[in-house]
């Protein structure tokens, strides 16, 4: 049975930068939890970031792939560079996904770690743009199918095709 790496904040864990969560309610999520398919992790916490912490974004024009290639950085709103923690968290997520046999990931949109398809623009203005976060980019590069929370029905369909 395929396992799914899931952002801890989507599972109701208070790990976001502001100390909150983005608990997701969906019938499929409850079924997968009951089946033991969910592997829960916050890459930012796994990378050593505290809760709460200042918000962070990938520098303008960059994305997770550019961070992994050394062409962009992740910085907090006050300017502190936290790239290393985000890289460590992404590596921890990939290591866990591999150890648990996760072929899929359900990650929080907009996050500089977990954003899949959409991330903040690096100006701390609340504006989203196309791109992947650091963890999403690393997981995709490793062949793990990544879905944002608004695409949970597509994830359910992909899992059904694999059954």
What do you see in this structure?
Helix 4 crosses helix 5 (134-141). The protein has one domain (3-162). It has a 4-stranded parallel sheet, sandwiched between helices. A two-stranded antiparallel sheet has the order 3-4. The protein has a two-stranded antiparallel ribbon with strand order 6-7. The protein has 6 helices and 8 strands; from the N terminus they run βαβαβαβαβββαβα. It is of the alpha/beta class and 163 residues long.
List the helices and strands and how they pair.
Layout: E1 3-7, H1 27-34, E2 38-41, H2 43-46, E3 56-58, H3 64-68, E4 74-76, H4 83-100, E5 102-107, E6 118-120, E7 128-130, H5 134-141, E8 145-148, H6 152-162
Parallel strand pairs: 1-2, 1-5, 5-8
Antiparallel strand pairs: 3-4, 6-7
Helix pairs in contact: 4-5
Strand content: 15-25%
- Write out the strand line-up for the largest beta sheet, numbering strands in chain order: 2-1-5-8
* Overall 3D form: globular
Helix and strand element order: EHEHEHEHEEEHEH
Sum this structure up briefly.
By secondary structure, the protein is α/β, with parallel strands linked by helices.
Supply database-style keywords.
163 residues; 33% helix; alpha/beta; four-stranded parallel beta sheet; two-stranded antiparallel ribbon; globular
């Amino acid at each position: 049975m395929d396992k799914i790496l899931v952002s801890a904040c989507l599972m109701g864990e208070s790990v976001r930068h502001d100390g909150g969560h983005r608990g997701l309610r969906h019938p499929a999520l409850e079924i997968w939890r009951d089946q033991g398919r969910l592997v829960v992790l916050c890459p930012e916490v796994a990378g050593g970031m505290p809760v709460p912490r200042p918000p962070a974004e990938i520098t303008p024009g960059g994305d997770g792939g550019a961070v992994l290639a050394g062409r962009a950085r992740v910085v907090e709103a006050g300017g502190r560079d936290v790239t290393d923690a985000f890289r460590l968290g992404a590596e921890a997520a990939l290591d866990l996904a591999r150890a648990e046999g996760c072929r899929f990931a359900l990650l929080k949109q907009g996050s500089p770690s977990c954003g899949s398809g959409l991330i903040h623009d690096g100006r701390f203005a609340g504006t989203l743009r196309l791109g992947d976060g650091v963890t999403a980019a690393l997981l995709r590069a490793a062949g793990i199918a990544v879905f944002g929370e608004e695409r949970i029905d597509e994830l359910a369909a992909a899992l059904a095709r694999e059954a």
